[in-house]
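Tutorial handout. Part one gives the primary structure; part two gives the three-dimensional structure as tokens.
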Amino acid sequence: MLYYLTIALQAYCVYHCFTNRNSYYWFFVIIFLPVVGSLLYIFMNIINKQGIEKVQNDITSVINPTKKITDLEKKFEFSNTFQNQVALADAYLEAKMFDKAILNYEESLKVVFVNDHYALTKLLEAYYYASQSDKALKIAERLKDDTKFKKTKASFLYALALEKEGNIDKAEEFLTNFDAPYSYYEERLALANFYIRNDHKTKAKTLLDELVLESERMTKESYRQNSGILKKIVALQKTNR
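Part two.
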């Protein structure tokens, strides 16, 4: 058991080091000093930035990805509350168990919680990922005029669902809500792709140029945090010059 825990710990540290572009010497420390090196890496590069609780959750997810769901199922079985059911639905959604997520969000949205904003936005997400765009659009109609909805992930997915339905102008209206400097990189990349798909090449080029310029002006830490998406942006810019 200790052997597998060590391997899981090393794998997590190597993955984190690679995706965050940390100094290459950490790979040698992690690999040749499995336990000590991994713990040292976590302390130096993760705990000081994210907190002990987040690290514990991440490592637990690597070792036993179903534990979180199992614990939440037991918690909900013991105490059938709105908060516990939504937390369970969130876990199902995170695990891409969309049917179970939908069932629990729908069950939670009753009586005094029928219009709960958070649960409705998450239900919209679950519908979208379950390829039930028609139901996602119906939920969005209840939320679209709420200022809290404007820059949520649900709003972003609503825009993509609108595009699928052929409502290009309305989709663009909601996607452009995310076009703010030094933020929302995934959504802005999606907006650039949206422009390309819908033959707005000039808009796409302008947006991609802005994004690349921002990446060049970032601090090292900010670039490290967004490196994955920024590489995709640069690659898309090169193919759309």
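Part three, for discussion. The chain has a mean pLDDT of 87. The longest helix spans residues 2-19.
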